Amino acid sequence: MQTKIEIPPITDWGQNLNFPLLIAGPCSAESEEQVMGVARALSNDGRVRVFRAGIWKPRTRPGSFEGVGKDGLKWFSQVKRETGLMVATEVVMPQHVEMVLKYGIDMVWVGARTSANPFLVDQLADALAGVNIPVLVKNPVSPDLELWIGAIERLWRSGIKRLVAVHRGFHPYERSRLRNIPKWEIPIDLKSRMPSLPVICDPSHIAGIAALVPEIAQRSIDLSFDGLMVEVHPLPSAALTDPLQQLTPDAFSQMLSTLNFRDTSSNSHEYIDFLEQARNKIDSIDQQIIELLANRMRIVEQIGVYKRNNNVTIFQLRRWEKILESRIECGEKMGLDVDYIKSLLQLVHKESIKKQAEILRGNKPVNGE
Ligand code: PEP
Ligand code: MN
To answer: CB within 10 Å: which end of the chain, N or C, has fewer?
Structure first.
């Protein structure tokens, strides 16, 4: 059973935090100059409340730069002193927690490679128990909502109440335009399972290249995410980690100015009336779609019985190819996305095959038989 999680509102965390929660900074802390350069630029911009930088970097392959380690901690202290920004870093092992607490780090995050590891999350949760700093939980690398929820629950159960989920996309098994596939439905499901949990987006790791970061950031805002964590580096091309996806401080400020942080709701009568009418239309259309799907299924069943009686196989490749081709063509003409129609049809077809297989096995009585 899912643990009941009630996160207190972020505005009550006593740290001057607000929505949208904006976190920015380099992927990795590399030197005092680099850290201070970004922190000063962010503080001059004035819209970001939390500075981020990784000092322990769990890398995919050995031999890569694995972070400056505890040497970076004093730079965080300097950022706090000089700019008043809060500071956040990634913790992977309990020893990291001990060290960050000594240096007054304000927030920590559990990375995508760690949130997938229940024992490690438990160890971090034990180390963080009784300490009231916010903990950000990135989604695990694979698109497994239960594993993400599990990590959040493990932290919650050890008494950590200030939790934020960070959506950073999922590892693609196929080549894609983006470094990590967003699969927006997963964080949206998370939000409906844990409505009090703030969910922010890390568009840098989803995009993988700087040019696509604003587009992903806007998308997350449109989907009512509660904030952003963005990688910002003074000279991205020279970055020791993730050089392609980091924004310069100027590009980051410019992005913040162009993003449209929409209201999640509006009290205007016109807006409410419009929304109600539009929703009524959608309700009615959805009802019709379901009725049509049910009608379609009745016919599929009839065909199933017919195939069984005539001893014919269920799956007919030519027919399926024709269905796909003609429906995609029709959908495209009507302005629908090809992948959308294709996945819809695949779902409908899969269910039809399943139904006919049941009929063929003879374990499903069919109306009228
Ligand atoms: C990071 O934020 O720099 C990072 C390593 O992220 P992730 O764990 O999402 O890969
Ligand atoms: Mn990174």
So the answer is: N
Ligand nearest, relative to CA of residue 59:
1
Which atom of ligand 1 sits closest to the CA of residue 166?
9
Decide if 10-258 and 269-360 have a common fold.
no
Give one DSSP letter per residue of 54-98, joined into a string. Answer: BSS---SSTTS----GGGGHHHHHHHHHHH--EEEEE--SHHHHH
Four-point Cα dihedral 348, 352, 353, 357, nearest 10: 150
CATH number of 10-258: 3.20.20.70
Would you kindly state where each structural domain of the chain is located, as residue ranges?
10-258, 269-360
Pocket test for ligand 1, best of 27, 136, 205 (most atoms within 8 A of CB): 205
Which CATH code is given to the segment(s) 269-360?
A: 1.20.59.10
> What's the 59 CA to ligand 1 centre distance in angstroms?
9
Global pTM reads: 0.80
pLDDT tens readout for residues 93-122: 999 999 999 999 999 999 999 999 999 999
CA–CA gap between residue 200 and residue 149 (Å, rounded): 15
Residues β-bridged to residue 87? 51
Residue 111: CB within 6 Å of ligand 1?
yes
pLDDT digits (tens, 9 = 90+) for 1-13: 678 999 999 999 9
What does the alpha-carbon distance between residue 209 and residue 245 come to, in Å, rounded to a whole number? 4
User: 170, 206 in Cβ contact below 8 A?
Assistant: no
Report, in angstroms and rounded to the nearest whole number, the Rg of the chain calculated over CA atoms: 25
Cis peptide upstream of residue 234 (ω within 30 degrees of 0): no
Do 79 and 111 contact (CB within 8 A), yes or no?
no
